[in-house]
Amino acid sequence: MDRLILGSQSPRRKEILSYFNLPFEQHTSFFDEEAVPFKGDPQQYVCTIASGKSEALAHLFPDAIILTADTTVYLDGEIYNKPSTEEEAFQSLSKLVGKWHHVYSGVSLRYKNQEYRESEETKVLFNALNPEQIRHYHSKIHWADKAGSYAIQMGAGLIVNKIDGCYYNVMGLPINTVRRLLNKIGIELWDYVK
């Protein structure tokens, strides 16, 4: 198999891909996500960013398989990306509590001048939380690198009531989407299950 590049410094994406005996390297894509405006379609938005990340890496690794992803949280016409301040994290989570929201990930696979991309949607219902619980939760996690200001894994079980769709999508890398994209270049993820 050719060299596989995971174009992300996300520890969660690394963890998910490490569930398989698929050798890969992690590299940061220096694509400017902020340069992509949100135009109302969250699926198009995350796919555009994932594609931009993979294109930026293709110049550095022209012969490699490049896998990139982008994830956002969406509710009532608004996206919730990584917060820049603690107050922004608090406000984001405050708007999501007690409601269903959508998590979208766009995944791009680039290989031999071809790009394949897909998006995945998961619906998440939060429990009702009071401001004290939100602040306590944020004091226990590293909220700054998380779309929507939360993580689904570990202690987030206290804030998440239900999910409808792929759990790993909410973590940032939907496994079944990755499998479908790898199939397009002749790689079967089932062959690499640990």
Outline the structure in words.
This protein has 194 residues and is an alpha/beta fold. It has one domain (4-192): Maf protein. Helix content is 30%, strand content 25%. The protein has six helices and seven strands. The protein has helices at 11-17, 42-58, 86-96, 131-140, 167-171, 175-183; strands at 4-6, 25-26, 65-75, 78-80, 100-111, 114-126, 160-164. Strands 1, 2, 3, 4, 5, 6 and 7 form a seven-stranded mixed β-sheet that branches. α3 (86-96) packs across α4. It is globular, with a radius of gyration of 17 Å. 39% of the residues are buried.
The Rg value, from CA coordinates, equals 17 Å
Point out poorly predicted stretches.
Answer: none
Order of helices and strands: EHEHEEHEEHEHH
Shape: globular
Rounded average pLDDT = 93
Distance between the termini: 17 Å
Category by helix and strand content:
alpha/beta
Instruction: Give the second-level CATH assignment, the architecture.
Output: Alpha-Beta Complex
Number of strands: 7
Helical content, roughly?
Answer: 25-40%
Main sheet makeup: 7 strands, mixed
Total separate domains: 1
- Counted by DSSP, the helix tally is 6
CATH class annotation: Alpha Beta
Question: Might you state the CATH topology name?
Answer: Maf protein
Q: How much of the sequence is in beta strands?
A: 25-35%
